[in-house]
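input
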Amino acid sequence: MKKRVLALLCTLAVTGTGFPMLVTLPADAAGTGTTYYISSIRGDNTKDGRSENTAWETLDKLSGLELGPGDRVLLEKGSVFNGYIHLKDVHGTKEAPIQVSSYGAGTQKPVINAEGQGVWYQDYGAPLDNAGHQYRGYVSSAVLLYDVDFVEVSDLEITNRSDDFTFFKGADSSVKETASEDPYKPAAGRMDRTGVAGIAKDGGTMEHVYLENLYIHDVDGNIQDKHMDNGGIQLNALKPADEKATGVARYDDVKIKNCYVQDVSRAGICVGYTYQWNKFQSSEIKDETASAYGHTNVVIEDNYVKDVGNDGIVALYAHRPMIQRNVADGCGADLKQYSGFHQPLCAAVWPWKCKDAVLQYNEVFDTVNNQDGQPWDIDWSDGTVYQYNYSHNNGGGCIMFCGTQAYRGVFRYNISYNDLNGLISLAGNPKGQIYNNVFYLDGDVSTVVFRNNSSYTGVAELKNNIFYNNSANKDKDNTLKHAKRTYTNNLFYGYTDVPEGSGNITGDPLFASGNRAVGKTKDGSLHERSAFNAYKLQEGSPAINKGTPVEGAPKQDFFGNPVGAVPDIGVYESSAKEEAKTYTDYEPDDAMRVGVAAGSVEQNSSTEGGARLALDGKTDTMWHTDWKGCERDQVWITLDLGESKPVARVKYVPRQTGGENGIFTKYKVEVRNSEKEEWKQVAEGNWAGDTETKYAVFEQVNARFVKLSGLETMSKNQLSDGSYLIFGTAAEVRAGYETPAK
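output
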């Protein structure tokens, strides 16, 4: 829907104690663009404000001004304004956005001191997903963008202080109302306050909202009200008055860049909670759901958040948000003092209910220890990827996979140095992929690998990681073994209780010389990649060319080097030449066709049935488990090579006809030499759910029996309880060996 082009700029002097009336005025849709200048240093309210020489003096001159496409409001550098800027129903265009920024030759950004004024009412229209979360109330904001788009705000300094914890000038009645509705103390009753607040409500999709080079500090908000517009920067979506007429309220094309947010409460930067939260209740979030009801094209980059009261940077209900090159220092600062309120916890940089979020090249230090306290948290989101990040001295550890809907989360090519408590928190998540990271501990820290919590029983696959512990205070009873965690091709140094799994090794990884204790920069900027050179591997390292390929892995390492077909263990991919290997499959003979077996078999089909069909050389026939479904532990097929032979890979050809039921997406390979022996696992991994031929490659062993199990397989047959029938299929299966070099 084409939005109305309306304009309002509402500003009041700070001496007023009443709530402002929001007025809308028609604007010129042509948008030729007018620039308005304001200077507290040399301005004069009797002038026209149309040039630097005729600048206005105070922000209240903007009240009633019509803004349209291409208009600019510029504040002189070095000026200090006691007031606020509120825009409602103001719309620029793609070609001519509205700009609020600065002018002049000075270096000091113009300052907007809201001082608790600029009060407006926020109402989501219904309770939120958690009954303990506030969903309506009065908010004080220095800058408010309410149903505003194609707007760019930049180069300003913004504060919003309060002179009292429980009393708010001009709004004491709202404080009492909030306190009576909220039983939690001591945060109850404190006004929600924001540096920059954004609301999408009655205009459909709000597009092109850019916030850049803002210094936001000393915002005295309410640490409890996480989904009100409360903290440094927060953009949220409220229920429209008539959604059928205006469309879903959401954001598209949000960019928050190069902002410095310090000493604010509650959060540093948040985009953006939505009244449509109930559309995101399943573990798997469909692309079409996320793009229709969530926020799109959200980029949060190159920002510095320091000593914020709670969370640092959060993307919520977004489709493919990008959070990159940010620094977070001292998140959760208010948790040092206050604890008796709803959810006294936080993490630094994380997504909530996002689809395919990417968080990369960020650095996080000194997050305050609390119930969470991690720098990174995959929190009830689908397809989250953390990569190329660095964390140090965070009170809650390194990474959390939080909850039963932390789905398809990936943590790869990250460095953790002396993070505290427990490095990894698996809080009931269905599965997490953790690979090619370095977890480094030294000094006198007592950090364990898995955070000690009886409810942290989530599932994880750990591959190609280096766990290095040279701490004088390390926990000698640190337990790595767990029924829901599998280890493949990891390197352990300084640990005695090394878990079982194929390809795991112990010993010194032979890191390069240099300082591994990479601290924080003085100005909050990112380190160059060269600062982490001490995490590279020396020639002769046992980690070189000893990793296992991971489905969907990136093509470059932490330093930007290309990753080879056989990756190194850790974050660094050396230039050491990989040993070229070729393989030959054992072609089935009559004895192999007799000896092949499967856990479940469909008995009533000549083309989708017995295990022998996986050895007949035809791709239009297949081994198929019972058409009625089977138990997961029945999805396997075993090859009998007749005698002990070298085996280094398994070839799996998925079904080529009749749909996708039974295609292996997660596999395990086991071997043994006789039926009396226990099976020994030699490989485990993931395959894409398509019809392309797959390979499981591992260190060559001698074996007579080779067993391929489907730990996860595809199914379209859903039952009434929401679960799916379990199937296994294979058009062809072969075991192969390394072909000797000529």
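quick obs: Residues 172-181 form the longest helix (10 residues).
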